[in-house]
Amino acid sequence: MCGFVLRRLAQVGLTIALLAGVVFVALRVAPGGPAYALLGPDRYTPALAARIDQQLGLDRPLPEQFVRWVGEMAHGELGYSYFHHLPAVGVVLERLPATLQLGGLAFLLSLAVGVPVGVWAAARRGSVADRLLSSSAVVVLSTPSFWLGIGLILVCSAQLHLLPSAGQAPIGRDGNLWERLRYLILPLLTMAASHTASLALYTRTAMIEALTADHTRTAKAMGASGVRLVWRHALATAAIPIATIAGLNLAHFLEGSLVVETVFAWPGIGQLTVASVTRRDYPVLLIISLIAGVVVALANLLTDLAYRWLDPRMETE
Fold it and tell me: Count of H helices and E strands in the chain?
């Protein structure tokens, strides 16, 4: 197991390095630049834009910029934000807790709801309840996150006045736990909805296959009760497909934060990414890309470790 983890960590390091190079080049060759956002439409002139590009080193040939950036990275210098005038790492890490809070709770909520719902639907396959749950999951999965978020704002905030529509906590009351929870509910439901629906559908499919497997039918013939048959015998067989979709969902939570945090003005990495793309804040975007790569790579690693825990036979492969 230790050898496997070390090999995967080495692959993660190589993947992050390649990702950093690709993102660096993609940002530099994309149309536009930070000069227009820094100057604004009123002050922008080609001469001032060229001067800013010179100050930021963006007027140099791309290979020279890349070599210089790699050298700075090797010395632990990850760049300064063009707009915040602070180290890019600090700007991103300041927003990271909000995104981890939202994404982590959404992931746990999707597991807590999606897996039991999928198991319950599979155990009652063909029933009215199964059809209703499956159809509802398909509808939720087909609904774009920004539509769902706006709909929740219109109903719960604008019409019923039950929950706040944006932000993380009211000014002056950010230490109040209940207030923070009220601001968290709508973005949490929006982010968790599609992942819960997909997990429920995949769990249902995997459980139906497991319930018709030979060993499950043998256990049923030997007198295993319905609850024991579903939760011990069938779920153990379906655990690896469920772990697969759960791992994929975990890797996509950071991506989903782009839309959800923008809709709800949640002060996390997703909102910062949208603002940084508009401003062409290259150092911040590079750090965000590296963090996203680490999250995806670690999610894949955790999924592989879950496979080996669920099926020890994989240790010998």
Answer: 13, 0
Token reading at 267: 């002060």
> How far, in Å, CA of 48 to CA of 83, rounded?
16
Angstrom distance (rounded) from CA 239 to CA 203: 9
Residues 16-69: tens digit of each pLDDT: 888 888 888 888 887 778 888 888 878 888 888 888 888 888 888 888 888 888
| Nearest by Cα to 292 from 259, 244, 250 | 250
Return the C-alpha torsion angle 243, 245, 246, 250, nearest 10: 140
**Which pair of tokens denotes residue 99?**
């995104």
* Cα 310 to chain centroid, rounded: 24
pLDDT, residue 193, reads: 92
Give phi and psi for 240, each to the nearest 5.
-70, -45
Per-residue DSSP letter, 166: S
Lookup result for tokens 């999928």 = 118
Grouping H, G, I as helix, E, B as strand and the rest as coil, residue 87 is: strand
pLDDT tens digits along 108-154: 999 999 999 998 888 888 889 889 998 999 999 898 888 999 999 99
Q: Assess contact for 280 and 32: CB atoms under 8 A.
A: yes
What gap in Å lies between CA 301 and CA 248, rounded to an integer? 11
Among 189, 183, 187, 188, which Cα is nearest to 168's? 183
Q: Which residue blocks in the chain are alpha helix, DSSP H? A: 2-29, 34-43, 46-56, 62-74, 88-123, 128-142, 145-152, 177-211, 214-221, 226-228, 235-263, 269-279, 282-310
Say how far apart CA 249 and CA 22 lie, in whole Å. Answer: 24
Q: Measured between alpha carbons, how far is residue 85 from residues 7, 13, 19, 24, 77 in Å?
A: 38, 29, 25, 20, 14
Structural domains of the chain, ranges and CATH numbers in brackets: 98-266 (1.10.3720.10)
Token readout for 173 is 């009351």
- Using alpha carbons, list the distances in angstroms from residue 189 to 98, 119, 151, 153: 15, 21, 12, 11
* CA distance linking residue 104 with residue 28, whole number of Å: 32
Name which of 97, 107, 81, 87 is nearest 285 in CA terms.
81
